[in-house]
Amino acid sequence: MKLLVAVKRTIDYNVKIRVKSDNTDVDMANVKMAMNPFCEIAVEEAVRMKESGLAEDVIAVSAGPDQVQETLRTALAMGADRGIHIKTDIELQPLAIAKLLKAIVDIEQPEVVILGKQAIDDDSNQTGQMLAALLNWSQATFASNIVLSDGNAEVTREVDGGLETISVKLPAVITTDLRLNEPRYASLPNIMKAKKKAIDIKSPDELSVDVEPRLITLKVEEPPKRESGVIVESVTELLDKLQNEAKVI
Ligand code: AMP
């Protein structure tokens, strides 16, 4: 079985996000970047499927500028077999990514595509669903457990208030939730080996995909600052504040 894993380069999740002073975007200057955490979980799951003999070929694909090759190298160091870099400097939105991934699926013919459930920079949570629609494939989103069997995937999904287990026919698009697995750290020997693995470079034009942005961001703002708390002397004072200041009861 062939698996395709989509990996996005995002701001490192430990970095405190700053907004540009003109409120047009997040400030990306000199910010540490890393693989989107949900994509790390996707790579880990694909590599585990390979290690357990369910898959033979794990292909990591990333779209974006030259720097996304670092993210692909991380995926290769974690155990992916080869990478595909769709090279573009244009800002990519979920529909464009889904179309690019569909073009790669048409070439590579994997049985399963695994994506993160969302990218932590735009929080769109759209690409996997759009890709499944474009391919007319089954989809199982927010996976916290995946069992592949003959022609099917049994996927446990984290839904409001509990877990839901569904069975989808392969080929399928699966998106990963936080509790699916704990991604490994790449060992030094594997980082060295990853340098020799192949990364194929393609362009959106070659894939006949128009990636022009369709959405315009009007404004980016930081969340309002939290006001500092106060210590109340008594329950009566607390009730009074809740009633007359916060007006929540
Ligand atoms: P989103 O719909 O933007 O929240 O992203 C969901 C998932 O789509 C990510 O976790 C990735 O698996 C995939 N994805 C988004 N952007 C890219 C990209 N530029 N290259 C490869 N995969 C991506």
**How far is it from the N-terminal to the C-terminal residue, by CA?**
58 Å
Helicity, as a percent range = 25-40%
The proportion of residues in beta strands is 25-35%
CATH top level assignment: Alpha Beta
Secondary structure: number of strands: 11
Number of domains: 1
- N-to-C order of helices and strands: EEEHEHEHEHEEEEHEH
What integer value in Å does the Rg equal?
Answer: 21 Å
Strand order of the largest sheet: 9-8-7-10-6-1-4-5-11
Q: Report the bound ligands by name, code or SMILES.
A: adenosine monophosphate
What low-confidence regions span 5 or more consecutive residues with pLDDT below 50? none
- Give the overall form: globular
In round numbers, the mean pLDDT is 95
Query: Helix/strand/pairing class, anyone?
Result: alpha/beta
The assigned CATH architecture is 3-Layer(aba) Sandwich
Specify the biggest β-sheet.
9 strands, mixed
Please give a structural write-up.
- The protein has 249 residues and is an alpha/beta fold.
- The chain has a single domain (2-222), classed as Rossmann fold (3-Layer(aba) Sandwich), CATH 3.40.50.
- The protein is 27% helix and 27% strand.
- The protein has six helices and eleven strands.
- The chain has helices at residues 37-51, 68-78, 94-108, 127-135, 188-194, 235-244, and strands spanning 2-6, 9-11, 33-35, 57-64, 82-87, 112-116, 138-149, 152-159, 162-169, 172-176, 199-202.
- The strands form two sheets. Strands 9-8-7-10-6-1-4-5-11 form a nine-stranded mixed β-sheet, with helices on both faces. Strands 2-3 form a two-stranded antiparallel ribbon.
- Helix 3 (94-108) crosses helix 4 (127-135).
- The longest helix is centred in the N-terminal third of the chain and has 15 residues, at 37-51.
- It is globular.
- Bound molecules: adenosine monophosphate (AMP).
- Adenosine monophosphate is lined by residues 6-8, 36, 38-39, 42, 61-64, 92, 94, 97, 115-116, 118-119, 122, 124-128.
